[in-house]
């Protein structure tokens, strides 16, 4: 009987030891996976990928500075995170007794980058499982400026740009792209990668006139000059109310004066003092006719090409543009 009892007790003891060992292994496995300091980082990165800004902010425990929040949720946030590739979460590195640093390595446009997250132990669950949370931080910002515009597009989202500038609070890691796409004005895209809660990143958009604006201004300029030449011909004037004129000491035979524009100005629209201006317009006009030498009475052809230059005022509304000649007499 004693031997039987001993064997049974031994079996129970062995089973208990195996159960304890299995429990220890299970606890260690959980602590190295779903209860590891990497787990909050995984959840945070997943929230960024899904555009869930509220969840990401709750996990990160970060202060939100007083800035435009257009990049903190939805499409803008998803776009920022979608440009992060080849993500690898590294092993936690001890920083203090209760804090660890979890490195995240990734690529953006082919460049290898790293973001470091600081986490701290906050307690245990079910006696054995360690709980971790991000150490309190502050979200970074991105400053965007644009020349002579009150709006832009950042990560596919239209945003307001009061007085041509705005500051956006952003999550990290992420890549942010600003651009201006308009009918009359546009700016090439600028990108910046935010990998940490550091000093503000900056994107400066250089706005330029579009080909359509130059074409439309050119069309209106040609129409004005063509009409001016026609009017000068009809009125038989050598000094019409136009950018061009001709002075001679000879008498020109009435009915023979004819004006044409021989070279139309090239159009250049540039920013100046907070507005858009058309650069001085330089061209050539040709006047023909018959003239009489007042001393000899000889009649001979008039055929002269004159240079002219004038400035304009450019007015632009969402629907139309107007070009007003500014002539000096």
Report on the structure:
By secondary structure, this protein is an alpha+beta fold. It folds into three domains: 2-138, Nuclear Transport Factor 2, Chain: A (Roll), CATH 3.10.450; 141-208, Immunoglobulin-like (Sandwich), CATH 2.60.40; 211-326, no CATH class. 26% of the residues lie in helices and 42% in strands. The chain has helices spanning 2-31, 38-49, 53-60, 74-82, 211-235, and strands at residues 62-63, 85-89, 93-94, 99-108, 111-125, 129-134, 137-138, 141-146, 151-154, 157-160, 165-169, 174-181, 185-194, 201-205, 208-209, 251-252, 258-263, 269-272, 275-278, 281-292, 299-316, 321-326. Strands 2, 3, 4, 5 and 6 form a five-stranded antiparallel β-sheet that branches. Strands 10-9-12-13-15 form a five-stranded antiparallel β-sheet. Strand 21 and strand 22 form a beta hairpin. Helix 2 (38-49) runs antiparallel to helix 3 (53-60).
Low-confidence stretches: 18-33
Query: What is the CATH C level class of the largest domain, in words?
Result: Alpha Beta
Largest sheet: 5 strands, antiparallel
How far the N terminus sits from the C terminus, by CA atoms, comes to: 131 Å
Order of helices and strands: HHHEHEEEEEEEEEEEEEEHEEEEEEE
CATH architecture of the largest domain: Roll
Residue fraction in strands = 35-45%
Number of strands: 22
Query: What is the residue-mean pLDDT, rounded to a whole number?
Result: 89
Helical content class? 25-40%
Contiguous helical run count: 5
Principal-axis shape equals rod-shaped
């Amino acid at each position: 009987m004693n031997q039987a009892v001993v064997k049974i007790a031994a079996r129970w003891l062995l089973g208990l030891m195996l159960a304890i060992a299995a429990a220890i292994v299970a606890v260690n496995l959980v602590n190295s996976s779903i209860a590891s300091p990497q787990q909050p980082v995984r959840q945070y990165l997943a929230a960024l990928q899904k555009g869930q800004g509220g969840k990401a902010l709750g996990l990160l425990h970060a202060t939100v500075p007083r800035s435009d929040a257009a990049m903190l949720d939805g499409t803008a946030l998803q776009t920022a995170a979608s440009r992060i590739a080849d993500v690898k979460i590294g092993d936690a590195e001890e920083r203090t007794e209760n804090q660890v640093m979890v490195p995240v390595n990734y690529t953006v446009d082919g460049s290898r980058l790293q973001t470091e997250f600081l986490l701290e132990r906050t307690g245990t669950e079910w006696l054995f499982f360690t709980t971790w949370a991000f150490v309190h931080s502050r979200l970074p910002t991105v400053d965007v400026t644009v020349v002579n515009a009150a709006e832009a597009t950042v990560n596919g989202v239209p945003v307001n740009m009061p007085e041509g500038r705005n500051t956006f609070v952003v999550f990290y890691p992420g890549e942010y792209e600003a651009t201006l796409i308009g009918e009359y004005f546009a700016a090439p895209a600028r990108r910046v990668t935010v990998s940490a809660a550091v000093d503000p990143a900056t994107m400066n958009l250089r706005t330029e006139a579009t080909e359509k604006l130059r074409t439309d201004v050119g069309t209106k300029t040609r129409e004005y000059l063509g009409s001016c030449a026609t009017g000068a011909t009809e009125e038989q004037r050598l000094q019409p109310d136009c950018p061009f004129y001709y002075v001679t000491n000879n008498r020109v035979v009435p009915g023979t004066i004819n004006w044409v524009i021989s070279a139309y100005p090239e159009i250049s629209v540039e920013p100046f003092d907070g507005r858009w201006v058309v650069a001085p317009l330089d061209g050539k006009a040709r006047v023909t006719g018959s003239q009489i030498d007042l001393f000899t009475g000889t009649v001979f052809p008039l055929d002269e090409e004159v240079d002219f230059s004038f400035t304009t005022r450019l007015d632009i509304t969402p629907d139309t543009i107007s070009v007003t000649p500014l002539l000096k007499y």
